[in-house]
Amino acid sequence: MTLSAQPAASLFIDGRPVEGEGAALPVLYPYTGEEIASLREASVAQVARACKVAARAQVEWAALAPVERGRVLTRAAAIIRERNEELSRLETLDTGKPIQETLVADWESGAAALEFFGGLAATVTGQMIPLGRDWAYTIREPLGVCAGIGAWNYPSQIACWKSAPALAMGNAMVFKPSEETPLGALKLAEILLEAGLPAGVFNVVQGRGAVGAALVNDLHVAKVSLTGSVATGQKVYAAAAEGMRHVTMELGGKSPLIVFEDANLDDAVGAAMLANFYSSGQICSNGTRVFVHEAIRDAFLEKLKARIATIRIGDPLDPETQYGPIVSPAQAAKIRTAIGAGESEGAALICGGAGEGAFIPPTVFAASDDMSIAREEIFGPVMTTLTFTDEADVIFRANATGYGLAAGIFTQDLTRAHRVIAKLEAGTCWINAYNLTPVEMPFGGVKLSGIGRENSAAAIEHYSQLKTVYVGMGGVDAPY
Ligand code: NAD
């Protein structure tokens, strides 16, 4: 069967598909390596045009009543839900993730963000500050043009998570998806237009890092929201500083998942699997350092191995498939290098390994904290298990990393759960759960893992700024 997912054109600017004028950007289906679409990058002039168009469109968009803006977003959410099947299939072709996952986790979560921020738009108000005779008030204003730059693991969800709060607050956006997964953002642009978004408010440019850099440096851009690696985040944050632009940085992690001796073992094993093997392990917040209490280590590993053996690996479009390929040969090679380093450093391979072609099986190591597989983000299906006996010691070890995206713990002891969570250096934490990120809850990291928060009312602050107005109610008492 020949698969095709060719869009009308590579870019979407000013309410229209526009062909890119830059380098070729082939889109490959990760499962077969077959080319499913042939795109072109945006030229520097096209990036500039998209930003200019966005700056113009933003003024009118911001002038609408917030409830009208909100209505457009909730309508877009409804369209996404109606077309979820077709959109999820495209997401699977773009990313290689099993259709079983994309049907429930990708566009569905994007629709939830549009719905949430659509509803929130009209509730954002300022403050009235009494000052005796005089008074002051605040207005929460949009920033202007926001640049969104995405990673490849949840391309459509990322596009929605960034655009929903931005647009709700009256900003315009120019979005650059990852060069690996450029297709979903184009669908979002079409859907937003159909839902009533004025032309030019949401634009899509395509390209590799250099196109992203051109976007970050455009003079119209007031804010940059990036989802990507720490290395890219450092470059983008530095470039944004030049123009004093606001930033949201959703970066990488090497998050701890701590399983105490009193944990419900089946739940802890299930969560550890979800925290390492969902989306073939390509999730930023994954709990890749699984600290298991010495007393339950053997039982934990035994159950883990038995359940991993039941994972159905294969064709992502088969509804029975639970585990798909890695997004690209380059990413698979990086993961294999990390697995090789684990083996050569003496970590014990519990199951899995390098695999073949596009597939890397769910892999588990028993390792020690100093090994590279326990320190560096792999962004693939590689779980590193470590053991502990003492609570204070495991907290210290969990925090002994530059990252701080997420953390999880499993225990039945209520006081311990909250005591330990309070001490973990992570932006997003779970107790007796892992990797659940409902839109109602702020999501983001501390330390090298990022700045700012996505989702929830907290995101509103990252897509707006305060204007303060002092109101003089009497004469001006000048001493001169
Ligand atoms: P990446 O850093 O290679 O690329 C991310 C995006 O940045 C891409 O669109 C890329 O084209 C662009 N880019 C690269 N160089 C740029 C530059 N100089 N200026 C502007 N843009 C530039 O990341 P990736 O490989 O696509 O994704 C994997 C990484 O993303 C992992 O580290 C993962 O943890 C992280 N991630 C974080 C989150 C989160 O929410 N915290 C979510 C998903 C992925």
Automatic annotation (TrEMBL):
Its Enzyme Commission number(s) read 1.2.1.8
Family named by the database record: Belongs to the aldehyde dehydrogenase family.
Q: What is this protein called?
A: Betaine-aldehyde dehydrogenase
Q: Does Oxidoreductase appear among the keywords?
A: yes
Gene3D superfamilies from the xrefs? Aldehyde Dehydrogenase, Chain A, domain 1 (3.40.605.10), Aldehyde Dehydrogenase, Chain A, domain 2 (3.40.309.10)
User: One Pfam family this chain carries?
Assistant: Aldedh
Domain Aldehyde dehydrogenase stretches? 20-469
According to the UniProt entry, its GO molecular function terms are: betaine-aldehyde dehydrogenase (NAD+) activity
Keyword vocabulary terms for this entry: Oxidoreductase
Whose protein is this, by species? Paracoccus caeni
**Residue ranges of the TM segments:** none
Active site per UniProt: 250
